[in-house]
Design goal:
Layout (H helix, E strand, L loop, with lengths): L1 H20 L13 H15 L3 E3 L16 E3 H4 L14 H5 L19 H14 L11 E3 L7 H13 L5 E6 L4 H11 L7 E3 L15 E6 H4 L9 H10 L12 E5 L18 H12 L4 E5 L27
Parallel strand pairs: 3-8, 4-6, 4-7, 5-6, 7-8
Antiparallel strand pairs: 1-2
């Protein structure tokens, strides 16, 4: 009997604590033995009834027409309101409105809906972010994490062309395979700019580049980024030299696009004193950003990171470092 009384007292204390915390409502003691369990079960059923994904369409950007394929986002992400869109791309009006474009003296023809609303949203927010600077003086970067099928290559090409419309005539596009060069050419062609010159860095000689390798897009793989010849001439030095020629050889003034497509290839970068070894790819990606501090950096990957430390190479996001909450 004494044990029963102690158990009753224990239940009374638990009930009082739950009431004070607002977890259960005050009820006659004879009815509250299963209150918490019932409320928990109800919450679980409610959560189970909630959809995991929701249909996605831009909220703050009014350009373009609906994407031809269904796009979804997680319910959690849908609860986050995007920032107001203030940037207006300098692309042709037909591209911004999703209309068919006809050839003129500046642009070739393109199909209706060459850029969807979702793709144009990425262009707008990239341009908006690139207009800002981090507290350490570097230009802000932007991350595109759209999934497969959204058309990240088309988004990259559009961001580069928007930059070209502002007179920034050189850009660097890093990716994982030389075969993706043909996809890049297709994306520029579909946007009405098949005349965009793409230079495959891996096919060019080391040292001084030919004079006709000038305005355009330097396309390189991450393997090329870490390459060097027997004379210790490095591709990354050649890349920086070519880019800076747009600004009379001043590396710090280059403000063209610097794109890291499939950027997760650089995720194995350890920026901690607690151990770990960086990969050459990660180190070269960081070095390239440091040597071109004013470049408009674009990180693109559907699988950028599995854990927070994998984001170490994304130094231009301004999420950590001097002047941030994670200094």
């Amino acid at each position: 009997q004494q044990e029963e009384q102690q158990e009753e007292q224990r239940k009374a204390r638990v009930k009082l604590e739950l009431e004070e915390d607002g977890i259960v409502e005050a009820t006659p003691f004879g009815h509250d033995a299963d209150v918490l369990e019932e409320q928990t079960s109800a919450q679980e059923l409610t959560s189970a009834a909630q959809p995991v994904f929701r249909s996605y369409r831009p909220v703050k950007v009014a350009y373009g027409k609906q994407h031809p394929e269904a796009i979804v986002e997680s319910t959690t992400m849908a609860c986050v309101e995007p920032p107001d869109a203030t940037y207006r791309p300098s692309l042709p009006k037909t591209l911004l409105l999703g209309e068919r474009g006809f050839a003129n003296e500046f642009w070739e023809k393109h199909h209706e809906g060459a850029l969807s609303a979702a793709q144009l949203e990425a262009v707008v927010y990239a341009g908006q972010r690139h207009a800002q600077h981090n507290d350490d003086g570097t230009r802000c970067g932007f991350f595109i994490g759209d999934g497969t099928g959204v058309g990240k290559g088309r988004e990259i090409a559009a961001v580069i062309l928007d930059s070209v419309c502002h007179g920034r005539t050189r850009a660097v596009w890093c990716s994982v395979s030389t075969q993706l060069l043909f996809d890049a050419q297709r994306d520029f062609r579909d946007l009405g700019r098949s005349d965009t010159r793409l230079y495959p860095l891996h096919k060019l000689p080391y040292g001084e580049l030919p004079l006709d390798i000038n305005e355009g897009v330097m396309f390189c793989t991450y393997q090329s980024l870490i390459a060097q010849n027997k004379q210790n001439e490095r591709r990354i030095d050649q890349l920086v030299r070519w880019a800076s020629e747009m600004n009379n050889g001043d590396e710090e003034s280059f403000d063209g696009c610097l794109v890291f497509d499939e950027a997760h290839r650089a995720k194995n970068l350890t920026q901690s004193d607690r151990g770990g070894k960086s990969t050459k790819t990660g180190e070269m990606v960081v070095e390239l950003q440091k040597r071109l501090p004013n470049a408009r950096v674009l990180y693109v990957s559907a699988t950028a990171a599995a854990e927070v430390k994998d984001l170490g190479y994304m130094s231009r996001l301004g999420l950590w470092g001097a002047g941030t909450p994670f200094a």
